[in-house]
Amino acid sequence: xxxxxxxxxxxxxxxxxxxxxxxxxxxxxxxxxxxxPALRPPAQPSSAALKKKTHSAVPQIxxxxxxxxxxxxxxxxxxxxxxxxxSASEDYTYTCCALKSNCKxxxxxxxxxxxxxxxxxxxxxxxxxxxxxxxxxxxxxxKQYLVNGSGYCQSYxxxxxxxxxxxxxxxxxxxxxxxxxxxxxxxxxxxxxxKIGKIFLIDQVDAFVNQSDPANPKPYIWATxxxxxxxxxxxxxxxxxxxxxxxxxxxxxxVTGKEHCEVDPNCASSTPQFD
Length: 275
Prior knowledge:
Order of helices and strands: HHHEEEEEEEEEEEEE
Strand content: 35-45%
Structural class: mainly beta
Number of strands: 13
Oligomer: single chain
């Protein structure tokens, strides 16, 4: 999918779900594409904040966790416009196309319960035990399974060869831009830029972390401006609600009936995908 290919730095397991379009039915959350005209890009810090030195120790996010996650990707093309409105609590930035303009805005959205184990290299999205879900095995099978409430495979897609579960983390080069209030709660604002060879810019990430318990930091929002080689492609936001770090139950990732499972017709490809 062109949209997924352009979102260069989205986590691989999220890309696989969007690309393969395995869809959860009535037993779980719905994964869908929608034409949302508005997505709030990350607020830009002041020039004074940007001058702050890199923090001596960035927060260490647990590699294994459960959370209710919501992922947004917005890719504006052509003669799009942006404007901001304000409410009593926060600002909203809208991205839209004028009538009859040479403009196109693409969006993707997915949300639901997410169980992630970087240790086991497995994930489960859309529902817990006893619910329909998408189970991805990056360690052994390199497959993504749609399972019913009993964990029995309904269909599968192949994962990209070489892909893996990437932990949520604050880059070691991140700058601490200080505390911010979001919805009445306090978060630490971290910012960094991903580059190729320390020269070519790929994206800018603004991460907001709940550090009220320094020993147990919890991610809240990861907002990414995708701009490879300084050319703006779009925005990607991930929100983590009800984040709980810790080892995940291996039963979450158990898939039965693999020998009878068939390739899903909505897969991007019926054969292993290479980068």
